[in-house]
Amino acid sequence: MLERCSRGDIAIALTIDTDRIARNEWDHFYIRKELEKFGTKYIAINQPMIDDSPEGRLIDTMLAGINAFQSRLTGRKVKLSLQRKWEQGDYPSWAPLGYLNVDRGTKEKPDKKIEIDPVAGPLITRLFELYATGNYSLLQLAKKMYGLGLPARKGKPICDSTLQQILTNTFYYGWMRWNSLEKQGNHKPLVTKQLFDQCQYIAAQHRQFLIRVRKHTFLLRGFVICNIHQHRLTAEWHKVIRSQHRTKISYYRCTNPSGCKGSYVDTEKTEHQVAESLKRYEFSEEFIELVKEEAKKQLSGSRERISSTVQGLTNQKKALTQKRDSLEDLLVDGTLDKESYARQHTKIIEEISFLENKIVDVESQRGLDVKLIEEILSLSRNIYKTYTQAPDFLKRHYLRIFYEGIYIKDKKIVKFAETPILSELRKSYQVRIKSILLPRRDSNPEPCRYKNPSVTKRLGLSHHPVNREPGI
Fold it and tell me: Which regions form coiled coils (predicted)?
């Protein structure tokens, strides 16, 4: 409007009310001044008392302030309303694809809830299931999902970048994120946390476990603890100047209100030290053999289950194929008219195609089970290597096996608190610390300190399992 009025040939600018021209008093006065400069008269239809008289200008000034006040008051009410909704466990924004915003309130008092889209919801679940098999790239999956009936918001084919956003959105397993806040939501999840994590693992495999630079997530958040105040450390970025170049580094620090200078530790260095700490651990050959036996049982059970499912689907397909052949014979004999044949034949072909896809998906589960077992065996054989090659979300799962807490004091790690499961494994000599395998520096080192008690007793050797590792 100002651009057009600047030409000097517009006599009057009309609005319904003054709040239609601006809801900020400074914008309002600027626009009025510009219109005056261009020789354009401003008229608010519902406020005819505004004119160039002293009284009219006073009223205009008052209305500009009232409009700004009303806008800010409404904004505050909306923020409080959204915050209240969040606190109640409801997502205060637009639902992602697969869900709908449904109003369950009244006309006077709307109450929007997020519910599963009856059409897109099951397809989103299907999307996660297919990607978890590891047999689809994002481009392949985008084509397949569009064929199954999952378009983007405006009906266009869904793109691979949208699929990537869906597959990394924690909302689908029930975990909400909004305005730097996180919590479990009231909405019904479309996938399980296990399926979601499996998709993250497959995505990491597709990019050869290339770890991207983390922006706002930190690997050890929730693990590192201040040894003095017993507070879990938070993590944040800091801007620093090094050699006249400004850069950003991240630190873990204690959340004690009075401060805690000794808790500040560099995130990368600390994460590297934690990774190095895992070099000390190794599983016993006996334990690895137990894992192998259990893996064989799981794989055998999986094969039987998959074979049974595939056989059932194959039988269904065979019955439909016979039905299709009979239908074609009826058409040839003239018993069935063309329209009835086309309708029934199309339906049968669709059902056969669905079963064929289902068989492929079930068969692909074999490969998925093997990958999971491969990961488990890899961890048991080489803890450090498996950990360092894993993506961050999987590293956190591994850390939960070993540590309940990592304690920081005087800007360094002073203690690793083991989990109960690791303590039990160590007590039963299924997990050993490598440093205690080394001979002592004295002239008469104790023999076979790490052997199984029953073995050492049978061989007549001494057995004193002493943990001399610092911080444990």
Answer: 303-330
Q: Is residue 27 part of a domain?
A: yes
What is the rounded CA–CA span in Å between residue 121 and residue 118?
Answer: 6
446 confidence band (pLDDT: 50, 70, 90): very low
Taken in order 237, 241, 243, 246, is the CA torsion positive or negative?
positive
* CATH classification of the domain holding 33: 3.40.50.1390
pTM, 2 dp: 0.43
Q: Is the pLDDT higher at 312 or at 436? A: 312
- CA 197 – CA 185 distance, rounded (Å): 18
Report which of 160, 195, 175 is spatially closest to residue 96, judged by C-alpha positions: 175
- Domain termination site, one of 60, 87, 114: 87
Question: pLDDT digits over 193-208, tens only?
Answer: 888 888 887 787 665 4
Q: How far, in Å, CA of 369 to CA of 305, rounded?
A: 12
Q: Which domain holds residue 197?
A: 99-206
Domain count, the chain: 2
What type of residue is 119? V
Q: Do 109 and 170 share a domain, yes or no? A: yes
Does residue 147 form part of some domain? yes
CB 64 within 8 A of CB 25: yes
pLDDT for 266-281, tens place per residue?
888 999 999 999 888 8
DSSP state letters, 344-398? HHHHHHHHHHHHHHHHHHHHHHHHHHHHHHHHHHHHHH-HHHHHHHS-HHHHHHH
What pLDDT, on a 0 to 100 scale, did the predictor assign at position 209?
44
Mean pLDDT of 391-412: 86
Same structural domain for residues 13 and 81? Answer: yes
